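Appendix B, record 7
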Amino acid sequence: MQGFYFRHLPDIVKLITDADERRESDPAEAPKHYIDMDHYGDNPFGEMPKAWDKASAKYSADTLRKYGTVPWTVLEVKEQLTEAFKQRDTTAIIRLSADLGHYVSDAFVPLHTTENYDGQLTNQAGLHSLWESKLPERHIAEYRLDSDPGSYLKDPQGAIWKVVQESYGFLGATFDIEEKITRNFTPETKYVFSHKFGKTRRSYSDAFADAYHKEVGGQVAYRLKGAPTMVASMWFTAWKDAGSPDLNTLLTKKITKEEKAELAAQLKTWNKNELVPEQKLIALQKEKAVERPDEIKSAEEVAPAPVEAATPATPVPAAAPTAPEKVKVKTKGGTAPKQKIKAKKVDDGWN
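Structure tokens (predicted):
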């Protein structure tokens, strides 16, 4: 199982944000990322049934979907991943593993458990992106990333609800510390403003973010460290519930000695908490620029070099085009002639 996931880890990292992108086109997607527990009274975890059928019977399915369904979404995707393992569907396994990782991680964010998800109800708008994005992006090198190993979950439902309840418990400090730090800043030093597409956007300044991090950074690091363990546990549980299929049989090419050595080296780096300084954290690695065959260039770039008339050029066979990386490209219609190039499909042995 470890070799399979190591082989496909770059694919999973690329797909991990798909769930957020679907929110733009699918109205039913957004509620899957959160649950507003404070909508259900002063004792929401005592009042809320953990099973979907009982909760929907008590509050109605429409109400649950309106105020978020992240714990049930996690369980649903976990069952889908179990089925994908049973069917030996590599594509589905990779896609669902990414989705499951996304939803589980969302459950670890305190601001995903409240109606005041962005501080918009307490004049703290922008708090969501500050806690979830800006703080870890600026300070991730300071965090311990050596998360505990995953393990089989006898009660996945209880496990994810425990995560949600712990996140909810951090809300008080999340808001109170922001208010405390604000006393040392003026509006001019607390915020920065940007203008884009005719709109002015306000966000927290770097100085405020760093001051806030000194107070709340331990909380962020703690939740960040716990999320990978739960993600791994959900993957492992889905695999075990599917009968522990041999995932090596799904690989078109066996794990090589080089891959095993690289995995061992990365695990050593992970144990030493040196993923960031050694630039092994995939999410922080920049993708190599790839020249696109349909890229529109200037006339000077595409104009052929002049050839002397008296000396005929010796014909040189054209090099075979390489298979372009599959990327999303927006091109404007232009006057440059289009050339159809049939790229040779290359099998690199990766699913």
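Remarks on this record: Residues 2-250 form a domain with the P1 Nuclease fold (CATH 1.10.575.10). Strands lie at 191-196, 199-204.
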